[in-house]
Amino acid sequence: MNAKNTDFGTFAQDVMLGLNSTPKTLPSKYFYDAKGDKLFQQIMALPEYYLTRKEYEVLEGQHKQILTEIIALDKPFNLVELGAGDGMKTKILLRYLTEMNVEFTYYPVDFSGSVLEELEESLATEFPALNVNPIQDTYRDSLKKQVWENGKPNLILFLGANLGNFGMDEAKNIIDHLRVGTKKGDLVLLGFDLKKNPQIILNAYHDKQGVTREFNMNLLDRINSELDADFDRDSFTHWPTYDPVSGECRSYLVSQKSQVVTIGALNQSFEFEAFESIFTEISKKYSLSEISHLASLGGFEVKENFMDSEGYFADVLWVKK
């Protein structure tokens, strides 16, 4: 088990760099401590948050077609999942592969050690014979290291619209890492939230219950508790926006007044003007043509688009050329 707690030095350094930037930013990867993990599970169950339901529909209804290519190779392979989370969606694929007596090793990759520990426990209960090798790391670093590379074919999963959590330049960089981390014939299954009615998209990040707000505010709580800061969460408001041209939904924490925040671990104070914002998260929505273009940039071709009945979400299968 390669799980470990968030590195204090890295967390402190990233916070320092982000709050010294113009405009101010905080990395969304730090949403995911134990409390943040639980909040995100709540978000996925919200009526406004359609993404999880739609991807479940795709995987439950089309998992046999999705896995046809890798099973047809008739040889042991690596199933690598970038951003494994709780593994609930992936278990649909794992269950079918197990039923078909397919030989493979599952490599769940996630930045959150607590998530990986819980996933490993649940897999041991549900799939006791499954070969599992959890890896706590970022997407890019895990692709650089390729700890799973052993000459076997690879099916890499990047589900849940995780690629959308990066701007286009960063997404292209990750696709380039996928290019380097795969060989000819390898398969990649990526989840994409598709462009649609802007109000439907915005509602998904601005739920009436305020869970997404709490998810963002938890980042300030983490800085307070782990870095000895004095953020007053009540003086910040969570503000999501959506641009239908770029397809980018962005989240901000906006200071409601002029204030100074001190972070003891950094021995530094940060001034906020009234209504100055901290950029926390991006969730990009894609068109099918944009997805095809991304594939070509990485040396892949689109094998098939697997979509839900309303065309809200697509799990897209790429093959390395």
TrEMBL record:
InterPro entries: EgtD_Methyltrsf_superfamily, MeTrfase_dom, MeTrfase_EgtD-like, SAM-dependent_MTases_sf. Gene3D superfamilies: Vaccinia Virus protein VP39. It comes from the Bacteria. Keywords: Methyltransferase, Transferase. GO terms for biological process: methylation. Residues 11-318 form the Histidine-specific methyltransferase SAM-dependent domain. One of its GO terms (molecular function) is methyltransferase activity. Pfam families: Methyltransf_33. This is L-histidine N(Alpha)-methyltransferase. It comes from Algoriphagus aquimarinus. The lineage of its organism: Bacteria, Pseudomonadati, Bacteroidota, Cytophagia, Cytophagales.
